[in-house]
Amino acid sequence: MNKLFVTFFGSGLLRPAPGTWGSVAGWIVGLVILSLAGGTTLFLCAALVFVISLKIIDEYEKQVGSHDNSEIVIDEVVGVWIAMSIGASVGEVYGIDFAQIISGFEASQLSWLAMILSLVLFRVFDIWKPSIIGRADRDIKGGLGVMSDDVLAGFFAGLGVLIIFSLMIKFGLGGLIF
Question: Which of 22, 60, 99, 132 is deepest in the core (most CB within 10 A)?
Answer without folding.
Answer: 22
